[in-house]
Amino acid sequence: MTTINATEPVYWSGIQKLLLRFFLVFFIVYIILDPNGFLPYADPFFNLFINRLHVFIPWIAKNILHLAKPVTEFTGGSGDTTYDYLVLLFVVTFSAISAIIWSVIDRKARNYNKLFYWVCVIVRYYVALTMLSYGFIKIIKLQFGSPTPGRLLESFGDASPMGLAWTYMGYSTGFNYFTGIAEVSCGLLLFFRKTTTLGAILGVVVAGNIMAINYCFDVPVKLLSTMLVAMSLFLLSKDALRLINFFFLNKSAPPSNIDPHRFKAKWKNITLKTIKYVLIIYVVAINLYGDIDAATQYGDKAPKPPLYGIYDVQSFVRNKDTIAPLTTDTTRWRKLIISYADNARIKLMDDTLKNYSFKTDVKTHSIVINTYTDTLKRNLFRYTEAPNGDLQLKGMWDKDSLKITLKKFDLNKFRLINRGFHWINEAPYNK
């Protein structure tokens, strides 16, 4: 029995050619202008374009779009800044104009089968490399850390939507493994022609889940996650009719034509294949090495800062006067919360939370505390740590002398920490 593969069309419709021209320009320009670190150590190359864009886009915003506020924030902690949306608008506009000009110049083209093949190669490698990057930081548990003491004390109502999502993801190491392996699997499948369709289907599911979280929990990576879904759908467009026949119409679907478009010169094909495997090994090795090394500096496996934990104030003596724990007092400490190095949060009696620079010297048993707005005004304390973790602080706060006794809270008393996993549950434990 002879198997007949789906053949590439000899003639493309006008709309097909127009769309190919648009998406070719769109994807290439988008990747150059918003690489998102998908290729390790390639930022200097991409910055040649991006740094110029940091001048060009604000100019467009001011002189052409006449935005009320100047563009001063660029892609950073947030990937959904005004700048990012303007970059997307620029890329769409540029791609549309390029597609129209190209259509006028190349009116007689019958098809773009070879060009479509190479566009798919570019897109699937971008999605694959991005998925690997995000997958490894979940497997090694760097993206979503376990709930910190500060997060454990924060009420659901006071958490930001993104903070709630990060706590949800960070709580479970197993769930990090599950999502990370799914992303890495998607990336690896997209590296190879025979598994591209499966990888793209997995990409729609995995990136779609990320996109849903980003939209529903206001995580500022909406544009990138949406782009990953769009790119995965683009990769499936070649097999759209086959997939519809198989999944929805109960019709036979011939095997896809996955024959590569090769060069005539054999050395070129060998070189291309060599570059492919070197790239895969390079990206996997660099991501793994970088993430494993980063795990020793931050994340769940990183060393905890000195005095890490939650401390309840037992007594608060100011200028030799013991201050009563009145909930109306806006100066007396109620709790000391240390989650990160060189940082602490002090909860006052009226439940106000304030962040401070909190530098601890374990050799001299001293602490320097100051606000982030006034680094010159420093408060020096000496601390004594009991074997059970309790603390006593003595020092000056502005012009007042303080002596504070604090009892360390056992984090295992939080239900979120001590509940654990149970195969058998006679009743839901959701209260």
What fraction strand? Answer: 5-15%
Radius of gyration: 28 Å
Mean pLDDT: 91
**What is the helical fraction, as a range of percent?**
40-55%
Oligomer: single chain
- Unreliable sequence segments: none
**Structural class designation:** alpha+beta
What can be said about the biggest beta sheet? 8 strands, antiparallel, barrel
User: What's the arrangement of strands in the largest beta sheet?
Assistant: 1-3-4-5-6-7-8-9
What does this protein structure show overall?
This protein is of the alpha+beta class and 431 residues long. It has 12 helices and 9 strands. It has helices at residues 14-33, 43-63, 82-105, 113-139, 149-153, 161-171, 173-189, 196-216, 222-236, 240-247, 266-295, 415-418; strands at residues 309-318, 321-322, 333-338, 343-348, 353-361, 366-370, 379-385, 391-397, 400-409. It has an 8-stranded antiparallel barrel with strand order 1-3-4-5-6-7-8-9. A hairpin with a 2-residue loop joins strand 8 (391-397) and strand 9 (400-409). Helix 1 runs antiparallel to helix 3 and helix 2 (43-63) crosses helix 3. It is elongated, with a radius of gyration of 28 Å. The mean pLDDT is 91.
